[in-house]
Design brief:
homodimer; alpha/beta; two-stranded parallel sheet; 16 strands; globular; Homoserine O-acetyltransferase (chains A, B); EC 2.3.1.31 (chains A, B); transferase (chains A, B)
Chain lengths: ~400, ~400
């Protein structure tokens, strides 16, 4: 909802995150039920009288409901440098939304036409029920007692949330990375309620090296003694050291090697002068990684990180729905599918989108694939707005 | 030296690591002097009367002096599975040497012809003076008081060591990864004493993403509270948690994504049954990484890891010797140069070897480059013995 009276051109203006409590428990793949469940959300644009113009945008591992506009709560705008993705992905409620370049009047997800809904995922730490929420059974934060989630659990929660809003059909479900997984899961779980999906820099199943990176990030958090088996809430300590390393690992996998080279090269912190130190950064890239780690731990909950990371490694359409065969898993999809991948993305490489495209086409499903030649790696989905916009607009208008 | 009376065919047989104390302090790039310095070493084959058949082999980050044969100390042979590189690289004094497939009678570095010398690097933890050695000033392990080293410091130590052995010239200096950096450094520091260098899966300067991975590994160690600022010796605690994560990061960078995919795919630990756990491995690759981490921390000193990692990120021939220009840095090289790189090595990609080749050729220096098309990533230099052997033998015989 637009709150500001004079939004900047192309901006949805000042926005505020809202909260909604689901009326029923959410049934989870692990066999448990979760209740109560609160969902944090934002909306942009206006719902049409026929309620047929809704686009659900889904965030990635460390995102939140604040996808567009300027937060009314903490209105300072985030700076957006060349590698601003991690910052926007991170500003989480403050400043510009994480996909502000894609959502707004005249933008890819055009709020002059569509009613765009964004929720914080189940398991999140930005307003939706997650491991840092209070467990009604104990009166204390769930911590490690929070259930281990799947992407399907997150999608079922979004479905229940939209039910409360009285929204039955979705014109589109869109997202990048883990967000794209949700779009795919929507098309399979609710084939009759999704007109189209926009799957960007995503996959039907993370490749084994991606599983390994995620495992390393989680190990780093859980090996930090301050994690305390996940019961760090209210102890005055949190696994910042391990979270920092997890973020550094993630960050390097989000960028391409050439992009890192272009931005930092092998430049030293102090001209050509080595300081012969193990503990202080010698290279600019080392200093940058520390900065990324420090700013991340200030804003993100470690148990939510573990939950999101686990869910995205579990995601495997062929295993879940196809008895091992991707084509089988996609048999009932009726949504038109737009796939966008980026040439330099080695965490979610184009090959996975090509697999999806081939499987959908072999089933005679309407699908489009665009592999954008861009140098910034996985973060392209947050950075390459200019080139994604015409593709998305044309696809949605079809 | 061959100790066993009946070595297996192609094996140098049973060997024993020896130790030598240098007569003089070693001057270091950081400005300090180090004394005393002990060097752990092994030799294979026989020194010719003219002392003109010496090959120095140089180990990588986590290696040691035990490059070939079977250790006489702990004679159990290490198993060598398809991904045995990390184990051999790791057996460190036990079982087969880390380059046993390349050193021995009739092998690439043929001990019927050459006298092969292998030392544990300065800063190491397998017999050569390093951070876990006793600081004579305090009577306790150096820990963080050990000087921060460069590859040149390691090479000057090898030079001083060979002086004691009465070896002036080297027929070849050979190594992979950090070992290849030493070979290059030898050719520049001692151009009149090196006939040839064999530089495998190495570089003139690690690319920025490699600098980042190394920074992450070191951060992981230093953020472990058990590191205690480096003074963990004699405390009964050591930064095993951080070292484990560092090793996992390293390990994934040593392998190619396709190789990891071929070996593990997305196979679950328990068939197709998710257990919905954050703390236990769900995927085989997760279990494998834990195993790698656990076995590594049992055998390697954290401060040595930091020292080696820092030295290999510092290494930059253009900065050190060329005022920024690689060609300038190589001007005085007189050694014949053999460069071998592997197509799937993304930590030390072929591009760096191509840079070296182009620079040497532009100077009219004798150089050969072979890019071997092989799938196992950086670890190829430890695994692809069969294809490296004829190249190395032909080069050395020339």
């Amino acid at each position: 909802m637009v709150i500001g009276s004079a939004p900047a051109a192309g901006s949805v203006g000042e926005v505020r995150t809202r909260y909604l409590d689901l009326p029923d428990p959410v049934r989870l793949d692990c066999g448990r039920e979760l209740s109560p469940v609160r969902v944090a959300y934002e909306t942009y644009g206006a719902l049409s009288p026929r309620r047929d113009n809704v686009i659900l945008v889904c965030h990635a591992l460390s995102g939140d409901a604040h996808a567009a506009g300027v937060s009314a709560v903490r209105p300072e705008a985030s700076t957006r440098d060349g590698f601003g993705a991690e910052d926007r992905d991170g500003t989480a409620g403050a400043g510009l939304g994480w996909w502000d370049g894609m959502i707004g009047p005249g933008k890819a997800f055009d709020t002059d036409r569509y009613f765009v809904v964004s929720t914080n995922l189940l398991g999140g730490c930005r307003g939706t029920t997650g491991p840092s929420s209070v467990d009604p059974a104990t009166g204390r934060p769930y911590g490690p007692d929070f259930p281990v989630l799947t992407v399907a659990d997150m999608v079922r929660t979004q479905r229940a949330f939209l039910d409360v809003l009285g929204i039955d059909r979705l014109a589109a479900v869109a997202g990048g990375s883990l967000g794209g997984m949700q779009a795919l899961e929507w098309a399979i779980l609710y084939p009759d309620q999704v007109d189209s999906i926009v799957v960007i820099a995503s996959t039907h199943a993370l490749h084994p090296q991606g599983v390994a990176w995620n495992a390393i990030a989680r190990e780093s958090i859980m090996r930090d003694p301050a994690w305390q088996g996940g019961r760090y809430h209210d102890t005055g300590r949190s696994p910042d050291a391990g979270m920092g390393v997890a973020r550094m690992v993630g960050h390097v996998t989000y960028l391409s090697a050439p992009a890192l080279g272009e931005k930092f090269g092998r430049r030293l912190q102090f001209a050509d002068d080595l300081r012969y130190t193990l503990t202080e950064p010698e290279f600019e890239v080392e200093n940058y990684l520390r900065h990324q780690a420090d700013s991340f731990v200030r804003r993100f909950d470690a148990n939510t990180y573990l939950t999101m990371s686990r869910a995205l490694t579990y995601f495997d359409l062929a295993r879940q729905y196809g008895g091992g065969a991707l084509t089988q898993a996609l048999t009932d999809v009726s949504a038109r599918t737009l796939l966008i991948a980026f040439s330099s993305d080695w965490l979610y490489p184009p090959a996975a989108s090509e697999d999806l495209y081939a499987a959908l086409r072999s089933l005679g499903k309407p699908a489009e694939l665009h592999v954008i030649d861009a140098p910034y790696g996985h973060d392209c989905f947050l950075l390459e707005e200019r080139r994604q916009t015409p593709i998305v607009r044309r696809f949605l208008a079809a």
